[in-house]
């Protein structure tokens, strides 16, 4: 394989991780044009959320997703654990919204309505998702998928001569 092709395939590996992250962690979250009040609340949420808070939200999200009928078989979480996570995350959200980001939360509700508070969590979700993918075990699992992808087929299907030329490989 040429050096350029190896570099290109390395880019596919990074692209594969990015696509998997977007599909699995962020799902169908759609970024909308946020108002300045939403941006201010987003910034406050990011600054006010501790590593412990992020872990609690991550665990709660995993458990919430695992209740889907197609995912239940992969999780053995008990009802007591679910209840404990619900309580913990509720305390985290209440502390952050009511105590640490109260002024920003009020401003968002007044300017954009209660639903806009949820939009403020998109940036926090994105940052948390990026942190998840930095974990060594998660990286290994995501890269494990690439062992079973026919990269040659992907390359020949999507990398047209025009794209190869842009990459500096004359075809």
Describe the secondary structure blueprint for this structure.
Blueprint: H1 3-26, H2 36-48, H3 51-66, H4 79-100, H5 102-112, H6 115-134, H7 136-146, H8 151-158, H9 161-166
Keywords:
single chain; 171 residues; mainly alpha; 9 helices; extended; disordered N terminus
The number of strands is 0
Estimate the helix proportion, in percent.
Answer: over 70%
How many domains in all?
2
Overall form: extended
Estimated structural class: mainly alpha
- Discrete helix count: 9
| H-E string | HHHHHHHHH
Radius of gyration: 21 Å
Give the oligomer, counting copies of the same chain as homo and different chains as hetero: single chain
**Low-confidence spans:** 1-32
How far do the termini sit from each other? 14 Å
Beta-strand percent range: under 5%
Largest sheet composition: none
Mean pLDDT: 80
Signal peptide: 1-34
Keywords: Signal
Walk me through the structure.
The protein has 171 residues and is mostly helical. The protein has 2 domains: 67 residues, no CATH class; 101 residues, no CATH class. It contains 9 helices and no strands. The longest helix has 24 residues. It is extended and about 60 Å long. The N terminus is likely disordered.
Task: Provide a short characterization of the protein structure.
The protein has 171 residues and is mainly α. The chain has nine helices and no strands. Helix 1 (3-26) packs across helix 7 (136-146).
């Amino acid at each position: 394989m040429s050096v350029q092709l190896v570099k290109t395939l390395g880019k596919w590996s990074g692209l594969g991780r990015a696509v998997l992250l977007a599909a699995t962690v962020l799902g169908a979250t759609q970024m909308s044009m946020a108002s300045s009040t939403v941006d201010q609340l987003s910034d406050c949420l990011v600054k006010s959320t501790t590593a412990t808070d992020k872990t609690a939200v991550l665990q709660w999200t995993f458990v919430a997703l695992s209740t889907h009928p197609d995912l239940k078989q992969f999780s053995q979480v008990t009802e007591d654990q679910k209840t404990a996570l619900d309580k913990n995350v509720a305390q985290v959200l209440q502390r952050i919204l009511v105590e640490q980001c109260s002024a920003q939360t009020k401003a968002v509700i007044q300017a954009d309505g209660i639903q806009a508070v949820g939009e403020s969590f998109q940036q926090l979700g994105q940052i948390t998702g990026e942190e998840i993918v930095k974990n060594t075990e998660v990286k290994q699992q995501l890269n494990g998928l690439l062992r079973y992808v026919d990269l040659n087929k992907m390359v020949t299907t999507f990398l047209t001569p025009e794209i190869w030329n842009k990459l500096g490989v004359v075809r």
